Protein: Probable beta-carotene 15,15'-dioxygenase
Amino acid sequence: MTEGIARARVDRWTALYPALALAALLPIGAVTPLFPVELGVATFALGTLVIGMAHGAVDHLVPLRAAPEVSLRRSIAVVSVAYAVLGGAVVAAFFRAPVASFVGFIALTWLHWGQGDVAALAVAGVEHLPTSAERWLSLVVRGGLPMAVPLLSHPAEYRLVAEWIVGLFVVDAPVAAAAVDPLFTSTTRLGVGGLMVGATALSVGLGYRRVRTGAARRGWLRDVGEVAVLWAWFLLAAPVFAIGVYFALWHALRHVGRLLLVDASAAAAVATGDARGAIARFARDAAPLTLGGFLVVGGVALAAPSGVAAPGDLLAVSLVAIAALTLPHVVVVAWLDRRQGVWRPGVGG
Structure:
């Protein structure tokens, strides 16, 4: 009973309300393409400072809390090694092959943000995604909305970010610009657009078929509504601004909510309606490694061959650092997914 109350409250606080907030922000997002990209950079920086960096900063405690047989020492040691090895490999890859690494980062983020949304739907107990295949299709749609849709609607700013990132490691600006050309051809954009439209239509259609055969309509309607809001948000808003808001308001909050549920003390606080106590506990646990994440940003800035001299450089450095933190974070989340049965047919997460 208490667990059900906690799940319902976490879902409402960290998923439903933020989704409604993003829908309310659509008119603001629609005018952001009229403003300089620096507005988006500032928004991204603020979102990262407030919650984005913190959402993965308790990964070292996830094995301990999700698996009682794992000791604190083992939990911290295994996750620390994963972050050091995998994060270091990502940074090294950017130095060696920046364009390929940028593409890899987009693909990894596509996977991870879809992974996060499917887990949130599992927490909500939706019934129209009972098989692994349907959940993977939902992952393709949910992760692709922030990563792929801006390529269709605002390719110039998307390309600018790619050039900023590649330009950290390729000092010659014309060479950096030419290196990303293949990513922004009409063929690439049409292919990505076709994939997203087709995957969205298929996911919505299969979900509706499940409703027709007995699945609860409410969960499907929620899924469709969220997808529609995300399509509108990323079609209308300038990419950097859109990602900055989405990262903090949508993805990070949903993951924080999930982590509250695997922490027995935080989940108990949620069940009693003590949101402040649950968030304070999370913030305390996340504070040290959130600072560590910003130290990673500083390290990448110091190591970048071209230096950091403009807002675009700062955004690029932040994204490379986030890429280094994302790969081990995805591994931890994938372990949690497996532990909770997110991808097993018929399991509610």
